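wait is this the right file?? whatever heres the structure
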């Protein structure tokens, strides 16, 4: 798998592996503090593309892949990061309070579990604070 997502107590780590995938994304990954994450959800390709802005750095092949950095329509200066290869059926969207990235769209086969896990960390149902060990 080219995209790994690790949900920690204080951050979400996105890791891009594979020489061609790193080259297409122009990134090896990033860490997003959970305090800056608004929510996450599984999303369809058609729905995700509606907010795809102009490509800045990365690659885009219609119907095949969208990788790298794109503008965020309606938010001057905001950027979104995409790592979508081949399989467009399993996309995870992560919204942040940041300008860069304001949004991440990632291809991941375990998108439902990851979205649930991120939302549990961001909006804990039990009211307990996150621990500072991750």
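ok assuming it is, sequence goes like this
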């Amino acid at each position: 798998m080219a995209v790994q997502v690790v949900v920690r107590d204080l951050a979400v780590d996105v890791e891009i592996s594979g020489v061609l995938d790193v080259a297409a994304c122009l990134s090896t990954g990033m860490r997003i503090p959970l305090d800056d994450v608004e929510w996450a959800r599984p999303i369809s390709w058609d729905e995700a593309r509606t907010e795809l802005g102009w490509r800045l750095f990365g690659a885009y092949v219609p119907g095949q892949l969208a990788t790298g950095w794109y503008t965020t329509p309606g938010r001057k200066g905001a950027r979104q990061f995409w790592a979508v290869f081949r399989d467009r059926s399993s996309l995870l969207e992560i919204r942040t309070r940041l300008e860069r990235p304001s949004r991440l769209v990632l291809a991941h086969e375990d998108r439902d579990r990851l979205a649930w896990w991120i939302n549990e960390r961001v909006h804990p149902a039990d009211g307990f604070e996150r621990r500072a060990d991750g």
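The chain has a mean pLDDT of 89. so i think its the right one actually
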